[in-house]
Design goal:
The complex is a heterodimer of chains A (229) and B (410).
Chain A: H1 3-13, H2 26-44, E1 48-54, E2 61-63, E3 72-80, E4 90-91, E5 93-94, H3 97-101, E6 124-128, E7 132-136, E8 145-152, H4 172-185, H5 189-211
Parallel strand pairs in A: 5-6
Antiparallel strand pairs in A: 1-8, 2-7, 3-4, 3-8, 6-7
Helix pairs in contact in A: 1-2, 1-4, 2-4, 4-5
Chain B: H1 12-22, H2 39-57, E1 61-65, E2 73-75, E3 92-93, H3 117-122, E4 132-134, E5 139-147, E6 150-155, H4 157-163, E7 171-172, E8 176-178, E9 186-190, E10 192-193, E11 200-203, E12 209-216, E13 221-227, E14 311-317, H5 333-349, H6 357-378
Helix pairs in contact in B: 1-2, 2-5, 5-6
Classes of the chains: A alpha+beta (229), B alpha/beta (410).
C-alpha cells in the first residue's frame, strides 16, 4: 500500500467520507499515519542504514546525534575502512569500560591504564549513554571515515506514492495506529483500544519478522570462536 | 562529523498543545473556565516525564572537570547570587577560611582564601588545592572518574578512616574519590591534589571562545582562552594551510587585555596543538583535538578544562531545564512519544473530572515499554561480544589459543 491507499483505508475504517469529511480531514489522517509509521518503525527497528563518521584527530567520543541518517536507534556495528582490499580494514570490536579500565583486555596496546591517551589504529568501540560513541585507540589525525551500521527512523511519508519499506503484510499497522490515535482524540476510548490491540498485532508481527528473517543453522561449541585474525 | 541543523518541531509549548488536543481539552474546544487540565499542569507533567525518563534510562552522558585548583569563592549566601551583574563570574559560596572551620559552617564545601581567579592566578603564595568540590546540580550518577588519564577508584569513607586517620588532608596524586560523607552532589578527591592543574584563563566576560594564546606568568604556565574575538584573516597569512580554529596568527589582544598578554594569538603556538591544522579561517572555535566537544553537535565551545593532572568526572545527567514554552528538547523526536505517554498517564490518573484509570494504565504501559526499549539500546552493541567460559581475563580476545576439537568427519 502506498500513502494514498493507506489514507483511503483509514477513511474506510473510520466510516469517513474523503470527499466531505465530518470529523477527520486528510491532513489529520496523514499526520496520524506518519505517527504510526514512526512508532512501528521505532519498535521493530526494521530500517537499517549506514552513516559515515569522519575521523577526527585525538577524538575519543563521537556524538551520534546529527549524523547523516539520524536518529540512531541502535548502533549495530562499526567499521574502519582503510581502502579497497586493504587488510587493515576491520570491524571494530565492542568493549566495556570495565574491560578497558581493568588493564587486562589484551597484552598489546590496551594493556595500559591510560588507554584514552593511546593513539593508533582504532580497534574497539563502546557506548556512553545513548548518544556518545567511544573508540579506542583514537586516531592521530583527521584522516578516514568510519562506517556506523545502525537502525534508524525512516523519513516520513509525504507523497501519495510513498510506500513503507517493510512488507505489505504489515502496512495496516500504521493505519490501525492512525485510527486508534484519531479515536482517542475524539473521546472514543473503547473503539480506540480495539484498534490499539489490532495495531499491536501488526507491531509484534513486524518485529518478529525483522528478527526471524534469516534461518540460522546452529553450531554449538564450547570455548571461544576460532581464531579468525 | 556530518551535522544537520536542528529542525525538531517539538518544544515544551508544542508538546503541551498536542497533549491537550489528545485530551480534548484545548481552548478551541473548551472555554477557559471549564478546562479540566490547565496548560501549566500539562507543562509540569512534561517536565516530570523528561526528568523521570532521563533518570531511569540514564541516556544523557556527559563529562566535566572538577579542576584541581585553589577554591575560589565570591559570595556568602545563596540570596546574593541574583545581585551579580551580567558578565560576572559566580564562583562558590564562602563561609570559612581554614579546614578546622568547616565544622561550624553550613554553606561552603571547602575553605577559600581568595575571591577572584585573578588572585588565584597571580597572587597566592601557596597552592592549597581543594579536596571537596561541588558536582553539577544536574548530576544523577557518577559513571567514572579519571585523573591524569588513570581511572580513580570509588572509595568509602569508613574504609578510608580505617586505613588512614589523615586521609582528608594527605596530599599527592588523586587515586580515588569519595561521595558518601560530604553531602549530596559533592566529591572528595583522595588524595588531596598536591599541585594545581594546567588550565585556561578566560579573558573577557561575554561571548564564546574563539581563540587562545600561551602565557607565561611567574606562578604557572597557562593557556588563555580569549572570548569575543573574531577569527579574521590578516595580511600575509591567507596562504597558510586550512585550520581548525577561527583564529590566526598576528591578532592583537582584545581591548583591555593588554596587561595580560601581548603574545601571538594562535592555538598552534601552543605545543599541544602545534601539529594541528585549522579548518576554517572564519568563525568560532568549534572543537579542539583531544577535548570533549561541548553541548552536543550543535553547540559551541564555552569552557575548556585540560585533562593533564586534573580530575575529570564522567556522569549521567538530567535533561536541561525546560523553563520556557520555546525550550527545545535534548531528546530525538521519536522519544517525545514516551514523554507524551508519561504526561497522558499522569493527566488521566489525576483524581477528579477527567480521571480515567483504564486509559492511565494504557499510557503507563506504553511509557514503561519505551523505557525498556531505550535501556536495551544502550546495551545493544555488547550483544555482539564473544564471551567465553573460564578463559583467563588477561588474555587477548583475538589471540586466544585454539581449543582442541575433534576432526570434522567424526
Amino acid at each position: 500500500m502506498n500513502f494514498a491507499e493507506m489514507e483511503a483505508r483509514a477513511f474506510e475504517i473510520l466510516s469517513e467520507s474523503p470527499a466531505s469529511p465530518a470529523f477527520w480531514t486528510s491532513p489529520n489522517i496523514r499526520t496520524a499515519l506518519n505517527d504510526g509509521f514512526e512508532v512501528i518503525s521505532e519498535v521493530s527497528e526494521w530500517y537499517e542504514c549506514i552513516s559515515p563518521i569522519p575521523v577526527l584527530a585525538r577524538r575519543t567520543y563521537y556524538d551520534l546525534r546529527g549524523l547523516k541518517n539520524s536518529p540512531v536507534l541502535t548502533p549495530v556495528a562499526l567499521q574502519f575502512p582503510q581502502g579497497p582490499l586493504n587488510p587493515m580494514t576491520r570491524w571494530l570490536r565492542p568493549v566495556t569500560m570495565r574491560e578497558l579500565d581493568q588493564d587486562g583486555l589484551n597484552d598489546n596496546m590496551l594493556a595500559y591504564p591510560r588507554w584514552e591517551t593511546v593513539e593508533g589504529l582504532t580497534q574497539f568501540f563502546f557506548m556512553r549513554g545513548l548518544f556518545w560513541l567511544g573508540i579506542t585507540p583514537r586516531s592521530s589525525s583527521d584522516t578516514g571515515i568510519k562506517r556506523l551500521s545502525h537502525t534508524s527512523i525512516p523519513p516520513r511519508l509525504v507523497s501519495d506514492e510513498d510506500t513503507p519499506g517493510f512488507p505489505e503484510e504489515f502496512h495496516l499497522g500504521p493505519v490501525e495506529y492512525a485510527v486508534y490515535d484519531l479515536f482517542i482524540r475524539d473521546g472514543e476510548r473503547g473503539l480506540a483500544m480495539e484498534h490499539w490491540a489490532e495495531y499491536q498485532r501488526h507491531e509484534t508481527g513486524l518485529t518478529q519478522y525483522v528478527k526471524d528473517r534469516q534461518a540460522r543453522d546452529r553450531i554449538y561449541q564450547m570455548g571461544p570462536e576460532e581464531n579468525i585474525e | 562529523m556530518t551535522l544537520s541543523a536542528p529542525s525538531s518541531p517539538w518544544t515544551l509549548g508544542t508538546l503541551r498543545d498536542d497533549i491537550l488536543d489528545r485530551l480534548g481539552d484545548t481552548a478551541a474546544v473548551t472555554p477557559e473556565a471549564s478546562r479540566v487540565w490547565t496548560e501549566a499542569e500539562i507543562e509540569n507533567y512534561i517536565r516530570d516525564g523528561v526528568n523521570d525518563f532521563c533518570m531511569t534510562t540514564k541516556l544523557l552522558w556527559d563529562m566535566r572537570h572538577v579542576d584541581d585548583l585553589p577554591f575560589s569563592s565570591n559570595y556568602d549566601a545563596a540570596w546574593e547570587k541574583p545581585y551579580f551583574i551580567v558578565g560576572d563570574v559566580i564562583h562558590e559560596p564562602n563561609s570559612f577560611d581554614a579546614p578546622g572551620d568547616k565544622d561550624f559552617q553550613t554553606s561552603s564545601i571547602s575553605p577559600s582564601n581568595h575571591d577572584y581567579t585573578d588572585e588565584r592566578d597571580y597572587h597566592l603564595t601557596e597552592d592549597l588545592i581543594s579536596a571537596v568540590e561541588r558536582l553539577p546540580d544536574a548530576l544523577y550518577q557518577i559513571d567514572r572518574v579519571t585523573w591524569d588519564g588513570f581511572k580513580a577508584i570509588p572509595l568509602q569513607s569508613r574504609r578510608m578512616a580505617r586505613l588512614d586517620n589523615y586521609f582528608e588532608v594527605i596530599r599527592g596524586r588523586v587515586f580515588g574519590y569519595l561521595q558518601d560523607r560530604d553531602g549530596l552532589r559533592t566529591i572528595r578527591k583522595w588524595k588531596v591534589p598536591a599541585a594545581r592543574a594546567l588550565y585556561y584563563i578566560a579573558i573577557g566576560k561575554f561571548g564564546i571562545l574563539s581563540g587562545s594564546s600561551t602565557s607565561s606568568v611567574a606562578k604557572v604556565t597557562s593557556v588563555r582562552m580569549h572570548i569575543d574575538q573574531f577569527g579574521v584573516v590578516v595580511a600575509g597569512v591567507t596562504d597558510i594551510a586550512p585550520t581548525v580554529f577561527g583564529m590566526l596568527t598576528g591578532f592583537a589582544p582584545p581591548a583591555g587585555s593588554a596587561t595580560f598578554s601581548a603574545v601571538v594569538d594562535a592555538l598552534t603556538a601552543i605545543a599541544e596543538f602545534a601539529s594541528d591544522l585549522i579548518r576554517w579561517r572564519f568563525g568560532f572555535l568549534r572543537r579542539l583535538p583531544g577535548y570533549f566537544p561541548a553541548n552536543g553537535p550543535h553547540g559551541l565551545v564555552k569552557r575548556i578544562s585540560q585533562d593533564g593532572t586534573n580530575t575529570r568526572v564522567e556522569f549521567f545527567r538530567r535533561h536541561h531545564p525546560l523553563n520556557t514554552i520555546d525550550a527545545a528538547f535534548e531528546l530525538p523526536d521519536y522519544m517525545i512519544m514516551h514523554i507524551r505517554c508519561y504526561a497522558l498517564w499522569k493527566a488521566y490518573s489525576r483524581q477528579g473530572i477527567g480521571q480515567d484509570l483504564k486509559f492511565a494504565e494504557h499510557y503507563r504501559a506504553r511509557y514503561a515499554a519505551g523505557i525498556a526499549r531505550t535501556v536495551a539500546r544502550i546495551q545493544a552493541i555488547y550483544k555482539s561480544k564473544v564471551y567465553r567460559m573460564g578463559g583467563p581475563q588477561g588474555e587477548p580476545i583475538y589471540k586466544s589459543k585454539p581449543y582442541a576439537r575433534l576432526p570434522r568427519n567424526i
